[in-house]
Write a structure and sequence with these properties.
By secondary structure, this protein is mostly helical. It has 22 helices and two strands. The chain folds into three domains: about 160 residues, no CATH class; about 70 residues, Arc Repressor Mutant, subunit A; about 80 residues, Arc Repressor Mutant, subunit A, CATH 1.10.10.
């Protein structure tokens, strides 16, 4: 009886609204795994009674000071000097720190589950609530009464501070593991998705890894988190590397086919569909169907060689646009031309009609018109330009403007 009393974890003695150093919390949580849950509830009640919270800002500063002279982990070259420099300034978690951080996270989560339960939230509601950003949770908690009903004092203000600390602790947890993401991202660069986008997806997946990690299994967090990062990066590639989304299983088969084709080329042969099917152990019909799904997207803004400033989109016809010759009534255009040329000399009218095929005939050259009129081609050109000059006067041009637009 005496021995069990000595070995029983002690309930911490805290001052009102005390900031508890993180290393003291680690000491209270350093118990056998079968006693951990019970001890978490005892520590949570003690913190709630004194309205005490954790000194996370002090812990962050202490980590920076401890790691200032330490060698940062080797990071892959992702050709983003600014991000790499920022990442090197963040201390990476070692093995002891990973397990300590996992216990702290479980403790704060357990304390919040207990506190929210006192305010009437079920375990299922609490689990969904703690997945949201702190600002959304605080908005709901702010509607609760000042104190929880039942035995023992539990302040809503203390609950709000602990919710904010839960988000800060998770951020610290993720920051210490950010280096894990780069090794995976470096393997999948230049596959159709920008490296910063892959890094962002990998970083976000660390939050999922935190929620599923169990420190009792004696497996490092970095080992467990690499699976989540890998899955997140692959999902991003499968869903975003193509303009038209292709099902993930099709892309996986395409990857196997591509690797088989590359192996065949290294062996000096161009594999047939049947040979590819035999190598990757799928039916030949499936290989043919999957290969038929390959489509290569071309941007409408892609420049066309030879035409400076021109792009592909400018060269494509507008199917909804009615062609100009069809949109202009023949009778109206003919009447307008006759009206505009009415005051021109007969010879000049004839030259314009024959030169531009205004009567529906094929346009004629200057030489052909000159031969029929018995004058030189240069004289025909002069008469043509003279007639066009009179037609371009503002009064006549206004009558033809509708056909030009």
């Amino acid at each position: 009886m005496v021995l069990s009393t000595i070995l029983r974890p002690k309930t911490p003695k805290l001052g009102t609204r005390q900031l508890v150093p993180v290393h003291e919390l680690d000491g209270w949580l350093d118990v056998d795994t079968d006693q951990f849950a019970t001890n978490c509830r005892k520590v949570a009640r003690a913190l709630a009674k004194a309205e005490a919270t954790l000194d996370l800002p002090g812990y962050r500063e202490a980590r920076k000071a401890d790691s200032s002279g330490a060698t940062s982990p080797d990071l892959p070259d992702i050709r983003d000097a600014l991000y790499s420099a920022d990442l090197k300034r963040i201390p990476a978690m070692d093995r002891p720190e990973e397990f300590a951080m996992a216990r702290r996270h479980e403790f704060v989560r357990s304390a919040l589950t207990w506190a929210l339960g006192r305010f009437g939230f079920s375990d299922a509601d609490t689990e969904e609530l703690l997945k949201l950003p702190a600002r959304h949770v605080l908005k709901q908690v702010s509607k609760l009464p000042e104190t929880a009903a039942g035995r023992g004092h539990l302040s809503r203000l203390w609950l709000e501070r602990m919710l904010s600390q839960f988000e800060d602790l998770r951020n610290l947890y993720v920051e210490g593991a950010l280096y894990i993401v780069l090794s995976t991202v470096n393997r999948y660069r230049n596959l159709g998705v920008d490296t910063p986008d892959l890094i962002q997806e990998g970083n976000a997946s660390l939050f999922q890894a935190i929620d599923g990690f169990d420190w009792r299994r004696d497996v490092r967090f970095r080992t467990y988190a690499q699976y989540w990062v890998h899955q997140a990066v692959l999902k991003m590639l499968y869903n975003s590397s193509r303009t038209v989304r292709v099902p993930i299983w099709v892309q996986k088969v395409l990857g196997k086919i591509r690797r088989a084709q590359e192996a065949g080329r290294r062996e000096g042969q161009d594999l047939s569909h049947a040979e590819i099917a035999s190598r990757i152990d799928v039916p030949e019909s499936k290989v043919e169907w999957v290969l038929s799904t390959r489509r290569y997207a071309v941007s409408l803004d892609a420049e066309i060689g030879g035409d400076e400033g021109a792009n592909l989109g400018q060269m494509l016809p507008d199917e909804d646009q009615v062609p100009v010759p069809e949109s202009v009534p023949v009778g109206d255009l003919g009447a307008a031309l006759n009206d505009v040329m009415a005051d021109l000399p007969v010879r000049e009218q004839g030259i314009l009609r024959r030169r531009f095929g205004l009567d529906g005939d094929e346009p004629e050259t200057l030489g052909e018109i000159a031969q029929d009129l018995g004058i030189t081609a240069e004289r025909v050109r002069q008469l043509q330009n003279s007639a066009l000059g009179r037609i371009k006067r503002p009064g006549k041009m206004r009558r033809l403007q509708a056909f030009v637009d």
